[in-house]
Amino acid sequence: MSLHTIRTYGHPVLRSVAAEVTDIDAKVVSLADRMIEVMYAAPGVGLAANQIGVQRRIFVYDIGDGPVTVINPEIVESDGEWTYEEGCLSVPGLSWEITRPDRVHLVGRDLDGNEISIETDEFESRVFQHELDHLNGVLLIERLDEDQQREAKRVLRQRSIDLRATGDPDGLGLLGQA
Description:
Layout: H1 26-41, E1 46-48, E2 58-61, E3 68-79, E4 82-88, E5 91-100, E6 103-109, E7 115-121, H2 122-135, H3 146-165, H4 172-175
Antiparallel strand pairs: 1-2, 2-3, 3-6, 4-5, 6-7
């Protein structure tokens, strides 16, 4: 499995809490560049480092204004409530109505090591929360109610069985279908 492969549901790296970045160096910049390439190729609007197997607190996103990298992100304030259909590159082809806070205040660092502070709402807020969940080892499925979780796991189990039967054990064939 290459660094460029998005890890999907069931991969243990998705359940682990990512480590803080202590030094923003050329390796971190290179990682962010690769993450942006993978995010666009998927295609997606956000990608956390652990989704490609790197246990560092970095995510990238692009909601239409160009790619942004956030290092050591933290939500310091949230408010309101907003329900929206949400999917995930690590759970390809599935999405659910998820309720999250509408407004967030995110802090972190950019690739130059400068502090960033972003107050936003709705879609950008959701992207931040979703990617931060990944960095904390939380998958979208854990945001579902008990019945939805049971059904999602049933679908994912069946998908895994189908993939093994078709000779696509890592699910890479699904990435083109998501």
